[in-house]
Amino acid sequence: MDNQKPLTTSTGAPVGDNQNSMTAGHRGPTLIQDYHLLEKLAHFNRERVPERVVHAKGAGAHGYFEVTKDISQYTKAAFLSEVGKRTPIFIRFSTVAGELGSADTVRDPRGFAVKFYTEEGNYDLVGNNTPVFFIRDAIKFPDFIHTQKRHPQTHLKNPNAVWDFWSLSPESLHQVTILMSDRGIPASLRHMHGFGSHTFKWVNAEGEAVWVKYHFKTEQGVKNMDVAVAARLAGEHPDYHTEDLFTAIDKGDFPAWKLYVQIMPVQDAETYRFDPFDVTKVWSQKDYPLIEVGRMVLDRNPENYFAEVEQVTLSPGNFVPGIEASPDKMLQGRIFAYADAHRYRVGANHNTLPINRPIAEVNNNQRDGAMRADGNGGSSIYYEPNSYGGASESPSHKPAPFAVSGLADSVPYDHNDHYTQAGDLYRLLSEEERLRLVANIVAAMTPVEKDEIKIRQIGHFYKADPEYGTRIAEGLGLPAPQGV
């Protein structure tokens, strides 16, 4: 065959026979000297890295982000510095609870994680398709995720654990309402919004700070999937969303999102009616209107799923000058946890992989480690401070200082109104949407064995809106709360 490339071993030696292993005689045992056979089998045994503990099932694509409005008054981030500026990106969409081979069309939040390859380093905005989350302190995250995973004895999903945890964690009510609504199953990855979810800090060139929240609004319009269709596709076509995204881009139907932000003056955080760093709450857009920033377009599919979608590593701790963390406790925990997961799953040198490698020059003293595939720093200076012209710190890029006060202690958030925003959301829904929401919750809670758990959760729904709680109680055949 013309232009046929020769098959080789991993060290480049040509392979003479890829159909038959080497044996001692026609029917003799296989020889250990058949290096190609041993290499092939040994590599095959190691072709799977550990899947992500959460967000294991995902799809991704390349694209660009273009600034459409001047926001330099709020941030000095170079990739946001001028209208028309384009920055290459990679985005990974995902489900949260399922395993790598799970179905796309399950009721679950969707991960919405964007890597911006900026000239000042990689900036990762690791969010979801919801503006809030189930919990607001990272210390509860392992317990929460355990409830979404499989029972250690039966290896089955466990609704008892799910609703027991939620009923004992009333801060989850807002996100539970979103999850059980029509938005819990998007029609496709292209037809959903994305959110940074957390509050972040922007700092401008003068060192002035503001608090910020990110909103990616889909240009395709929000579309959701009927529960019966979703259930059918989960069996017939479990990779439906993955295929839809790939096919759309492949045929030139490039999905796009407009990025907006909400800006809160730093001093407002002290008096706002909800804690602005509580990721279970939103900021009213009447108080802090959406401000246009730019447009994100996905226009190129991955060439290799494993090398790009599976090995991409995103961390909310990957900031660039002009963008910093807030006191959000959930964000603070994720800054450690995500990067640590990548070091375990992909390796200490995960940022040297092509999909993760920044376009900015990297100068640091991190050396060695498994799978160090670049020059490992060569013969350059490997410590700091130094007297030999090696890499050194840049005081001008220190994060903006912020005041702290009080005692070192394990303390909860000050605000515990978990019902107002969930109730407001319920009342925003049409009657048809409310009926579907209630039906979804009743179906999900029916398998729960203990009425105690059901009654406790119904109480939360009732506090959000009496009609909300009463309808669920009636659907479960339980009494509605009295005098809650």
From TrEMBL:
<dbReference type="InterPro" id="IPR020835">
    <property type="entry name" value="Catalase_sf"/>
</dbReference>
<keyword id="KW-0408">Iron</keyword>
<keyword id="KW-0376">Hydrogen peroxide</keyword>
<keyword id="KW-0575">Peroxidase</keyword>
<protein>
    <recommendedName>
        <fullName>Catalase</fullName>
        <ecNumber>1.11.1.6</ecNumber>
    </recommendedName>
</protein>
<dbReference type="InterPro" id="IPR040333">
    <property type="entry name" value="Catalase_3"/>
</dbReference>
<dbReference type="GO" id="GO:0005737">
    <property type="term" value="C:cytoplasm"/>
</dbReference>
<dbReference type="InterPro" id="IPR010582">
    <property type="entry name" value="Catalase_immune_responsive"/>
</dbReference>
<dbReference type="InterPro" id="IPR024711">
    <property type="entry name" value="Catalase_clade1/3"/>
</dbReference>
<feature type="compositionally biased region" description="Polar residues">
    <location>
        <begin position="1"/>
        <end position="23"/>
    </location>
</feature>
<dbReference type="GO" id="GO:0020037">
    <property type="term" value="F:heme binding"/>
</dbReference>
<comment type="similarity">
    <text>Belongs to the catalase family.</text>
</comment>
<dbReference type="GO" id="GO:0042744">
    <property type="term" value="P:hydrogen peroxide catabolic process"/>
</dbReference>
<dbReference type="GO" id="GO:0046872">
    <property type="term" value="F:metal ion binding"/>
</dbReference>
<dbReference type="Pfam" id="PF00199">
    <property type="entry name" value="Catalase"/>
</dbReference>
<dbReference type="InterPro" id="IPR011614">
    <property type="entry name" value="Catalase_core"/>
</dbReference>
<keyword id="KW-0560">Oxidoreductase</keyword>
<dbReference type="Pfam" id="PF06628">
    <property type="entry name" value="Catalase-rel"/>
</dbReference>
<dbReference type="InterPro" id="IPR018028">
    <property type="entry name" value="Catalase"/>
</dbReference>
<keyword id="KW-0349">Heme</keyword>
<feature type="region of interest" description="Disordered">
    <location>
        <begin position="1"/>
        <end position="25"/>
    </location>
</feature>
<dbReference type="InterPro" id="IPR024708">
    <property type="entry name" value="Catalase_AS"/>
</dbReference>
<dbReference type="GO" id="GO:0004096">
    <property type="term" value="F:catalase activity"/>
</dbReference>
<feature type="active site">
    <location>
        <position position="55"/>
    </location>
</feature>
<dbReference type="InterPro" id="IPR002226">
    <property type="entry name" value="Catalase_haem_BS"/>
</dbReference>
<feature type="binding site" description="axial binding residue">
    <location>
        <position position="338"/>
    </location>
    <ligand>
        <name>heme</name>
    </ligand>
</feature>
<keyword id="KW-0479">Metal-binding</keyword>
<dbReference type="GO" id="GO:0042542">
    <property type="term" value="P:response to hydrogen peroxide"/>
</dbReference>
<feature type="domain" description="Catalase core">
    <location>
        <begin position="8"/>
        <end position="392"/>
    </location>
</feature>
<feature type="active site">
    <location>
        <position position="128"/>
    </location>
</feature>
